[in-house]
């Protein structure tokens, strides 16, 4: 039997690493067969369940109804939105570690949870009338170059990469950029957030989006100001359909 020496050496090397640095849950540190998230941590995440607003996807009180924001006429530019869980507890901690703590290994398991949750059974029939769950491209929310240099990576792009890989859809990271540096949105109210992102993004290559169904991916949906501004620009560029997806909704 012919032995692949390089493969055997790699197997031995990784086996030795596992002995010295055994894989642990990326959130709580529990030993695992392989490094990701343990079942206890995943079980602690509060998933979002219907009913959802049939216009924008936000949680609402009644089935087949609009949320208060849409009913008040503040309808977002996207066609629908979906998030895996509520931005609280362990899920909030995981996203914080990915976004601010440099724990980029969390992007893959979080994207996996989002990809698994995003299926026909989780989407109301009213929303499915907008279109099926097949999309042409996956677009992450871009960071300003200054923020990208500070952080070293774009957490939304990491999530989008693994999500697109699982779904078999094309990741598109060109043609959309952030052109104005703005401070963090976290301490701003809804009106200030909307004003803060006006003119912050630019579609540089409209042909990359024209006529296509787009999944716009972010880590968290809060007020939707950033995502709404981008969705508006993509629609102006000719995108046929835009669904916003995020790991969590605040």
TrEMBL record:
Domain of life: Bacteria
CDD domains reported in the protein's UniProt record: PRTases_typeI
Gene3D superfamilies: 3.40.50.2020
One MF term in the entry's GO annotations: glycosyltransferase activity
Sequence ranges assigned to domain Double zinc ribbon in this UniProt record: 16-71
Family recorded in the similarity comment: Belongs to the ComF/GntX family.
Keywords associated with the record: Glycosyltransferase, Transferase
Pfam families: DZR_2, Pribosyltran
Residues making up the signal peptide according to the UniProt record: none
Species name: Chthonomonas calidirosea (strain DSM 23976 / ICMP 18418 / T49)
Name of this chain's protein: Predicted amidophosphoribosyltransferases
